[in-house]
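Why should sequence recovery work at all? Because a backbone constrains its sequence more than one might expect. Tight turns favour small or flexible residues, buried strands favour hydrophobic ones, and helices have their own preferences. The token representation captures these environments compactly. In the example below, the structure is given first.
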């Protein structure tokens, strides 16, 4: 038994040495999915952010690759601009989550890039959006920069329907700052053990060809399993044979069945996120009151996912329409530009394949409508 342990340790040491001295220097070792996203950082005030003045590449959905550049505020930008607190230009603040950060594409193809290019040198478009943001973060981040002395002339708040779900997980400390992570002293024993196991696993994956191969095999197996499950669900939904259900059928089912969107047309799911809706309303009201106090012209903008295009929306759009009327807020409802008789073809044409985010055509569609409805 001792001999087996010795052999195993020798193999492990040789594996470790070969990996770190040779394999890590080759293109073979690269895996975008596992790269450390060092530029996505926590914030002690508003949960998380992008690091200022970075330039990095990031994959989206395993296929798309985008260049991430941020300015001196950590806002996604075309170049590493130095942003002053005041400007002679008309300054537009964009507030939102992954849709407005620009999922999947280089900056020039996103809504922010298109708007900046259209408005020209007399305007400054500042994109504060980051993936997984929600109304309390919108408020806390905007309040932070206003308190720092930054000025804005116009604010466009893009409210995603997943924001309501995300709001359920936002917690505050005694100073009403958003808690970015649970302090180690408050973590359960199970959570501490889980973190240590993950840390060890990632170390072995990143320093051993054997464990890296096992991770790759596990990932591919999981991908195949998930696709087969998806295809099975699609075949049941379409009442088609599993073998006659195409890849497009399966992908379309996935695009229209993201569970975070069910609450907009399902009473059961709506009851689950009611607290998130209440908290979203509270912080959006605080945000618009703050913007009004600073005399910043502001707009609330809502839009559907593929699921709402396919199945309708009896919760999200009506709720914020009523909210805007009661609080005298400028609402831009983009649901009408996503209406089409051929829903499936329309969704494939305007959204990233297999995803809920806009593709280049979808971003352009939203941009054209905003330009037409809001006076700049």
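From this structural description, the recovered sequence reads:
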């Amino acid at each position: 038994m001792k001999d087996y342990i010795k052999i195993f340790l020798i193999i492990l040491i040789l594996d470790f040495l070969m990996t770190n001295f040779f394999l890590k220097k080759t293109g073979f070792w690269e895996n975008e999915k596992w790269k450390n996203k060092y530029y996505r950082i926590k914030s002690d005030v508003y949960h998380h952010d992008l690091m200022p003045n970075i330039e990095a590449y990031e994959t989206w959905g395993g296929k798309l690759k985008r260049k991430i550049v941020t300015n001196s505020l950590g806002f996604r930008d075309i170049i590493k601009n130095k942003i002053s607190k005041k400007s002679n230009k008309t300054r537009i603040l964009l507030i939102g989550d992954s849709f407005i950060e620009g999922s999947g594409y280089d900056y020039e193809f996103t809504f922010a890039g298109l708007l900046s290019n259209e408005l020209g040198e007399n305007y400054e478009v500042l994109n504060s959006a980051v993936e997984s943001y929600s109304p309390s973060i919108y408020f806390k981040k905007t309040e932070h920069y206003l308190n720092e002395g930054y000025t804005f002339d116009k604010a466009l708040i893009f409210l995603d329907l997943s924001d309501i779900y995300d709001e359920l997980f936002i917690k505050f400390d005694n100073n009403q700052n958003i808690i970015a992570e649970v302090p180690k002293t408050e973590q359960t024993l199970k959570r501490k053990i889980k973190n240590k196991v993950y840390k060890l696993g990632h170390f072995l994956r990143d320093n051993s060809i054997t464990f890296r191969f096992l991770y790759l095999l596990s990932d591919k197996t999981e991908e195949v399993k998930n696709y087969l499950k998806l295809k099975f669900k699609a075949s049941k939904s379409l009442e088609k044979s599993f073998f006659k259900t195409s890849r497009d059928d399966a992908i379309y089912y996935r695009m229209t069945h993201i569970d975070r969107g069910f609450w907009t047309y399902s009473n059961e799911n709506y009851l689950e996120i009611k607290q998130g809706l209440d908290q979203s309303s509270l912080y959006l009201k605080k945000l618009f009151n703050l913007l009004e106090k600073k005399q910043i012209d502001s707009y609330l903008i809502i839009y559907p996912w593929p699921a709402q295009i396919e199945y309708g929306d009896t919760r999200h759009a009506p709720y914020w329409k009523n909210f805007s009327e009661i609080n005298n807020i400028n609402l831009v409802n983009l649901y009408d530009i996503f209406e089409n008789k051929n829903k499936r073809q329309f969704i494939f044409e305007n959204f990233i394949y297999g995803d809920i985010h806009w593709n280049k055509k979808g971003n352009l569609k939203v941009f054209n409508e905003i330009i037409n409805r809001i006076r700049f």
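A few observations help interpret the result. The domain at 29-186+266-373 is CATH 3.40.50.1110 (Rossmann fold).
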